[in-house]
Design goal:
alpha/beta; Na+/H+ antiporter like fold; Rossmann fold; six-stranded parallel sheet; 10 strands; elongated
């Protein structure tokens, strides 16, 4: 059966191969957060199974000479998206730490990784140095999922986010000059010039095009519907132009392009970042599937035991030393430094660049050795280790942010305030959103937290993250207000956590267009009518024990947890329930 399946897939066309890559890749990306593991732990095994195990994918044959240029371009797009998330005003006083991590820290890691690989695998010094350069990089594709799981303090998270993005083009550049030395016997002076030329060319090309694009967008030279395509085209152009100037300078160019767009104020870039985030998921899944399909299982099995030792050296020696040197005399606490030393996975750039370099060495008529297998083994081992250890480490070191448990209520009418007070009395943090002065004043008089400001800027997200908003409850029938809040908070909490109480519901009645569909707390029109009737006739909100629920109580939410109460609007059972009680059943505990 298995052999017939393999034969059936042996003649996969390019189109069919792309379909398999995209379909399986998206399935892995969908499943990973549900299992609370980094997506690479599913993508790489899926690629290996589809490639060397079943023979469904054979990227070298199916894509031919365009394979590695496309892989390299895909990495450039990922770094462009990463650069769009780097804000100087967020990294604050730890900029110097980031600078030292990607310079002194990178040098320490390079030397230790190279020397260890040289001793363990009996390689030529130049080949070992090349492996050391490849293992310098970490990468946003694996760091970002770990940050979402571990949720460290902003000071730690920003350092890791910046390092993971900036170190990629630097590590690739180190790899390029080391490869040049390996193939051409370059002198130290030529190596230094190559490093400066590669990084400088990338920064100039990417930065220049970034300012030009911001100017064009700010002067409305580009129609709104073309902002995202033009930004992507600019990133591709920057990548190609920089690579023409210096090999692998394209990675630095796309990073610089994203960095400039993220920090300029002439034109908005948030919508571009959102588009690139979605595109990068497609690129990420495809790249890991392709690279996993190219793994030589026999060679990987041969090097794996020694790769375990190399990985332990990187985790226990190289990373702590690099962090210690980079955070010396910094404002970071001992616990924050320890957390930095505990997160350094390797990702897509190391995998992609190692494959490209191995092919280039083969084209020069030399034996590349187990470069790809060693790199892939370290990637898998570091991701597995940090993927399972980062969350306990953040909690043990007490650098993890408090769990998200707050509720955002959109609207501040009198009954909205009564509901907010009842949730708050139950221990659930609340933030109200309104665009009416009188509503704001009424909420403030009742000591309720109100967001008052421009709803379409990043202050909304920052306020939500600071309070730990987990759920959005849309109560207003003002479409403009509801749409603005859901647009800002929906991507942050997930559309599955955006609800309407359902009173007078219809999507437009709930204040949100059907294009931004949300979930109803009450799932039937009959319950909607009962809720409307209860409110119109003086119904009240109560927090009660689950055993005290009455037949005519309308359950709004379950209040979970004694230490950190959380409101769950998708449950009707729990130790404590928030209910809407009609007047005829009103008890002495009404608010």
């Amino acid at each position: 059966m298995a052999s017939s399946l393999i034969l059936a897939f042996e003649s996969l066309s390019v189109t069919s191969a792309v379909a398999v890559i995209v379909g399986v890749g998206m399935a892995c990306l969908w499943l990973a957060p549900r299992l609370k593991i980094p997506s690479i732990l599913l993508l790489l095994p899926a690629g290996v199974i589809a490639g060397p195990v079943l023979g469904i994918l054979n990227p070298d044959e199916q894509f031919g000479d365009v394979l590695f240029p496309l892989v390299s371009l895909g990495v450039g797009i990922l770094l462009f998206e990463g650069g769009l998330g780097l804000r100087f005003d967020k990294v604050g006083g730890v900029q110097s730490v980031v600078g030292r991590l990607v310079s002194i820290g990178a040098l320490i890691t390079w030397v230790i990784a190279g020397v260890t690989a040289w001793q363990l695998f009996e390689l030529r010094r130049a080949t070992a140095a090349l492996i050391g350069a490849l293992l310098v990089v970490s990468g946003p594709t694996v760091v970002q999922p770990l940050l979402r799981l571990a949720k460290p303090r902003p000071s730690v998270a920003e350092v890791l986010r910046w390092e993971g993005i900036v170190i990629d083009p630097i590590g690739a550049t180190l790899g390029v000059v080391t490869l040049d030395a390996l193939l051409e016997g370059a002198s130290p002076g030529r190596v230094a010039v190559s490093i400066a030329l590669t990084l400088g060319a990338g920064a100039i090309v990417g930065g220049g095009l970034g300012f030009a694009l911001a100017w064009a967008l700010g002067n409305h030279w580009v129609p709104d519907h073309l902002h995202n395509p033009v930004a992507l085209a600019t990133a591709i152009g920057a990548f190609a132009l920089a690579n023409t100037v210096a090999p692998e300078a394209g990675l630095m160019a796309t990073t610089a392009l994203g960095l400039v767009l993220a920090n300029q104020r002439r034109a908005p870039s948030r919508h571009i970042r959102e588009f690139e985030e979605e595109l990068s998921l497609l690129v990420l899944g495809g790249l890991f599937m392709i690279l996993g399909a190219r793994v030589d299982l026999d060679e990987m099995a041969e090097v794996f035991p020694r790769a375990v030792i190399l990985t332990l050296v990187l985790i226990l020696v190289a990373r702590p030393l690099a962090v210690a040197a980079s955070t010396f005399h910094s404002a970071l606490t001992i616990r924050e430094r320890a957390m930095l030393a505990f997160v350094a996975p390797r990702g897509i750039v190391a995998a992609a660049v190692s494959a490209v370099f191995a092919l280039e060495i083969e084209h020069k008529g030399q034996e590349p050795g187990p470069i790809v297998s060693i790199t892939f083994s370290v990637i898998v081992l570091t991701v597995v280790f940090y993927g399972f250890a980062a969350v306990p480490a953040a909690r043990f070191l007490k650098v993890a942010r408090p769990p998200q448990r707050a509720v955002a209520i959109v609207g501040a009418e009198p009954w909205h305030l009564r509901l907010a007070e009842q949730l708050q009395d139950g221990g659930v943090p609340i933030m109200l959103f309104t665009d009416q002065v009188r509503e704001r004043e009424r909420a403030q008089e009742r000591a309720l937290l109100v967001f008052w400001g421009e709803l379409q800027n990043e202050d909304v997200e920052e306020a939500a993250e600071a309070l730990g908003i987990r759920t959005v409850l849309v109560l207003t029938d003002r479409t403009e207000l509801a749409t603005a809040v859901v647009s800002s908070l929906g991507p942050l909490v997930g559309r599955a956590n955006v609800y309407s109480l359902g009173v007078g519901r219809g999507m437009e009645g709930a204040g949100v267009s059907s294009a931004m569909a949300i979930r109803g707390v009450f799932r039937t029109d009959e319950l909607d009518k009962k809720a409307t009737s209860a409110l119109q006739t003086g119904g009240t909100f109560h927090t009660i024990a689950g055993t005290e629920r009455r037949a005519d109580d309308l359950v709004i939410a379950a209040i979970e947890g004694d230490v950190a109460p959380t409101a769950s609007f998708d449950r009707t059972v729990g130790d404590r329930l928030l209910v809407l009680r009609p007047v005829k059943s009103e008890s002495s505990t009404s608010i």
